[in-house]
Each structure stands twice: as structure tokens, then as C-alpha cells.
Amino acid sequence: MATLDIKFLPDPILRRKARPVSRVDARIQRLLDDMLETMYASNGVGLAAPQVGISQRLIVLDIGDGPIRVVNPRLTFLGDEEELATEGCLSVPGVVGDVWRSLRILVRGLDENGRSLKLQAEGFLARAFQHEVDHLDGVLFVDKASDVRPITTEEAPEEDLEEGAPLDQTARSA
Fold first, then answer.
1. Candidates 3.20.20.70, 3.90.45.10, 1.20.1270.360, 1.10.10.10; correct CATH number of 12-169?
2. Burial of 150 (0-12, 13-18, 19+ CB in 10 A)
């Protein structure tokens, strides 16, 4: 596995709609693994392929329950109940903002082996999915956020501050 370079705003790839993956093969599986390694190395909870310079519809997530890899994810249901919460992003370091997201969603796509996948998510996992699928459509959290502001020590996880990580990597960003 390899750690990939994360693209930062204003890199134009972050604003492009990503292309669907036509076939899940060994190259896609390696890319998903590399994306996970990159996400973990950056203290993130989610990562979309455009964030590492690849315009394909691939996302990885891990909110603490183990890795999730999704090829060609589609949000097929967004619940009516929404929640306002603070988000950050590995591609927009140093800032956070408050974003409204649905509390419950349904995601369809393919798993890392090319099999059909259907996941129900709620709470933080639903938020992370919505954030990452937005990346695939060229939308960043700052486009939807109110009160975009610099990360403060109160918004940074304690363990990152103790390790001396730079503030732009401490928001547990997606």
C-alpha cells in the first residue's frame, strides 16, 4: 500500500464531477487500499478519489467501526430529519464549518469486489457518506457551510494536539 498526495483547494480536480468506475479490478482494489492508508495517515474519517487526484467515483470511510470501501456510491434516500454539525475536510485544511445533513440515508453502489452494495447509515456515518459523495460531484463542505472559521483547539481532538499534529490535520476531517 502507498500513501497518496492529498489535493487542496483550489485544485480544479476537486470541482469536477468524478467519472463512474466501469469495472472493479485489482487496480481499483489497490487504489481503495491506498486511499484508506492515506486517510488513516491524515487522521481523516473519509476520503474520495478526487481528493487524491483521481476523477473516479470511489470513497473510503472509517468512523471507528472498520473500513468501508464503496465504488460508484449513490445516495438513494435522504431522510427528512436533518442535523447541523461542524465538519472539516482534508482538502480544505485549517478551517471547519457548520453543515446541515440528513440524519438517515441509504447508499447503493459496489463493494471492493464489484458486488452490489446497499447500506443504511445514520448519525455520523450518514454525515460522512454525504460529505464524501459531495466530493464526487465537485462539491466541498465550504459550499454548504455556514460560519466557516479557523480550527480552534476546542475543535481539535485531544490526542492529535498531544501528538503535536498540525491543526490542519486535527479536525477528524472527511
1. 3.90.45.10
2. exposed
Q: Quote the pTM value.
A: 0.88
Query: Is residue 171 within 8 Å of residue 151, measured between CB atoms?
Result: yes
Catalytically annotated residue among 132, 155, 159, 162 = 132
pLDDT in tens, 109-160: 999 999 999 999 999 999 999 999 999 999 999 999 999 999 987 666 544 4
- Name residue 106's beta-bridge partners: 77, 120
Using alpha carbons, select from 29, 28, 18, 98 the residue that is nearest to residue 51.
18
Cell output for 106: 441509504
Please provide the DSSP assignment of the chain as one string.
--PPPPP-TT-GGGGSPPBPPS---HHHHHHHHHHHHHHHHTT-SEEEGGGGT--BSEEEE-SSS--EEEEEEEEEEE-S-EEEEEEE-TTSTTEEEEEEEESEEEEEEE-TTS-EEEEEEEHHHHHHHHHHHHHHTT--HHHH-EEEEE--TTTS-HHHHHHT--GGG-S---
Residue-wise pLDDT for 69-84, tens only, equals 999 999 999 999 999 9
Please confirm, yes or no, whether 37 is among the known catalytic residues: no
